[in-house]
Amino acid sequence: DTAVSQTPKYLVTQMGNDKSIKCEQNLGHDTMYWYKQDSKKFLKIMFSYNNKELIINETVPNRFSPKSPDKAHLNLHINSLELGDSAVYFCASSPRLAGGGDTQYFGPGTRLTVL
Amino acid sequence: SQKIEQNSEALNIQEGKTATLTCNYTNYSPAYLQWYRQDPGRGPVFLLLIRENEKEKRKERLKVTFDTTLKQSLFHITASQPADSATYLCALPNDYKLSFGAGTTVTVRA
């Protein structure tokens, strides 16, 4: 059973389009995250949710809107895609908010290419 | 400003040797530090956590040290194997999130 799953794995789209990435975890964790990994492999947090409540929003453009319909799901919608949005987006989950030492479990990533 | 620096982008070593990776940080006071492994095309996978009151932690062929005075963690892979080839990331907690270093890519030659 996949612990953290994301769809789609690859996403190729034109500038200006709107797209969504879905994430689901079956670990029973309270906290979920979205990270962006750019071409230099630097992994940077974008958002975190704890029990469906937004906890962290790391000054991400408001074209990015996360939504957590329940504890097990965290989706990411991106409006008006730009070239600079091209990256790999990772979803992750942990039992509680980072700070207590909990391991984060990452999904396989979604490679977004904006043309 | 806060910084996490991993010693080098790439490390090439001969099979059987020990790889030593460095994670230095500034303007953090972490209660712990974590190390993750990332293979190409996959998400990071947790390897080890070391707390501020622990000097050393081991897991099979992996050893991590944590020096809060030097603000540094060392990650050692002993008796390295080609299967250890991957990117290794250190991560520190900061305000309910983890901040990651840029990673060091290790290539083990047979």
Walkthrough of the structure:
The complex is a heterodimer of chains A (115) and B (110). By secondary structure, chain A is mainly beta. Chain A has a single domain (4-114), classed as Immunoglobulins (Immunoglobulin-like, Sandwich), CATH 2.60.40. Chain A is built from no helices and 11 strands. In chain A, strands 2, 4, 5, 6, 9, 10 and 11 form a 7-stranded mixed sheet that branches. Chain A has a 4-stranded antiparallel sheet with strand order 1-3-8-7, with no helix packed on it. Chain A is globular, with a radius of gyration of 13 Å. By secondary structure, chain B is mainly β. Chain B has strands at 3-6, 10-14, 19-26, 32-38, 45-51, 56-59, 62-67, 72-77, 86-94, 97-100, 104-109. Chain B has one domain (3-109): Sandwich (Immunoglobulin-like), CATH 2.60.40.10. In chain B, strands 2, 4, 5, 9, 10 and 11 form a 6-stranded mixed sheet that branches. Chain B has a 5-stranded antiparallel sheet with strand order 1-3-8-7-6, with no helix packed on it. Classes of the chains: A mainly beta (115), B mainly beta (110). Chains A and B meet through strand 5 and strand 10 of A and strand 5, strand 9 and strand 10 of B.
Described by strand count, sense and barrel closure, the largest sheet of chain B is: 6 strands, mixed
Biggest beta sheet attributes of chain A: 7 strands, mixed
Number of strands of chain B: 11
**Beta-sheet strand percentage of chain A?**
over 45%
Please count the helical segments of chain A: 0
Mean pLDDT of chain A: 93
Principal-axes shape call of chain A: globular
- The end-to-end distance of chain B, rounded to whole angstroms, is 41 Å
The CATH topology assignment of chain A is: Immunoglobulin-like
Question: How much strand of chain B?
Answer: over 45%
Q: What kind of assembly state do the chains in view correspond to?
A: heterodimer
Give me the count of strands of chain A: 11
Biggest interface goes to:
A-B, 25 and 22 residues
Round the Cα radius of gyration of chain A to an integer and report it. Answer: 13 Å
- Uncertain spans of chain A: none
- Rounded mean pLDDT of chain B is 94
Helix content of chain B: under 10%
Overall SS class of chain A: mainly beta
- Helical residue percent of chain A? under 10%
